[in-house]
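[recover] target loaded
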């Protein structure tokens, strides 16, 4: 007769892990669409949104795939060591203590160096195409952040839009009355960014780019919007009590529609641009004190 301690039918550890993986991986991924996976869980609308988004997505996807492969190898080695070198019934005392294994030491040193160098050069290549982009703007648009709204100066067209703060309506959307930034499609844009008071941050999630707006340190974003549509933008730097209301709409429109829009601003009398005279600490004369 079998003793009660007799193990049941043997199923190898590898098999059990295989079953676990076969059940959980599809379950985890089944909630995701193909587009979500292709964009690496970035906003789906980022696909083709600007001339930079593809490079960002490729870097991101390449990075996590490379790290996932490395992770799987490391996890497999850990599990294998745990199982292969587990304490057995007849083991007594401490196991043999091992150290100074040159092949292992070299592996642990060389692999991270290769990984870090790989990421470094890939990142530099992407940055050269994106954050270092200095293509002269066919349209220059100045965005000024202020507590808690946005001003948009269409510098090339010499018109402006002054945004006002809009209370949240319980949804995530900025709402119809929130400031709306119009961008012409397929046009080299130079978006100049500045702040009128405290540190803000200009972020259109679908563009996969974000820039801090630091008073006195103007920045710019050179980009080409390549897909017409509606996007949302927001301030991404906690800038005070109503930071959460600092949202805006983005409309990427045809060049004709953009011309119509800027003309409508001119017709409303919004000519000229809203300059630094609206900044909180603006002194009319250099060096003058309040
Ligand atoms: Cu802000």
């Amino acid at each position: 007769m079998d003793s009660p301690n007799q193990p049941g039918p043997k199923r190898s550890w590898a098999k059990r892990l295989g079953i676990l993986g076969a059940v959980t991986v599809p379950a985890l991924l089944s909630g995701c669409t193909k587009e979500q996976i292709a964009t690496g869980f970035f906003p789906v609308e980022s696909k083709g949104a600007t001339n930079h988004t593809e490079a960002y997505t490729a870097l991101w996807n390449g990075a996590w795939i490379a790290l996932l492969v490395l992770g799987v190898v490391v996890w497999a080695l850990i599990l294998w060591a745990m199982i292969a070198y587990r304490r057995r019934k007849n083991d007594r005392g401490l196991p043999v203590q091992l150290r100074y294994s040159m092949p292992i030491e070299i592996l642990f040193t060389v692999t991270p160096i290769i990984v870090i160098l790989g990421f470094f050069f890939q990142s530099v290549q992407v940055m050269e195409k994106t954050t270092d982009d200095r293509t002269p703007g066919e349209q220059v648009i100045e965005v000024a952040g202020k507590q808690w709204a946005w001003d948009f100066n269409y510098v090339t067209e010499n018109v402006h839009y002054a945004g006002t703060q809009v209370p949240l309506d319980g949804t995530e959307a900025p709402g119809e009355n929130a400031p709306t930034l119009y961008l012409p499609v397929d046009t080299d844009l130079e978006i100049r960014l500045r702040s009128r008071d405290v540190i803000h941050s200009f972020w259109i999630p679908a563009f996969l780019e974000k820039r801090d707006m630091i008073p006195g340190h103007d920045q710019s974003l050179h980009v080409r919007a390549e897909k017409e549509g509606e996007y949302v933008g927001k301030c991404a730097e906690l800038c005070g009590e109503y930071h959460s209301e600092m949202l805006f709409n983005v409309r990427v429109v045809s060049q004709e529609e953009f011309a119509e829009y800027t003309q409508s601003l001119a017709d409303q009398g919004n000519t000229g641009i809203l300059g630094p005279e609206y900044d909180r600490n603006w002194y009319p004369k250099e060096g003058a004190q309040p």
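[recover] notes: The first helix runs from residue 13 to 29.
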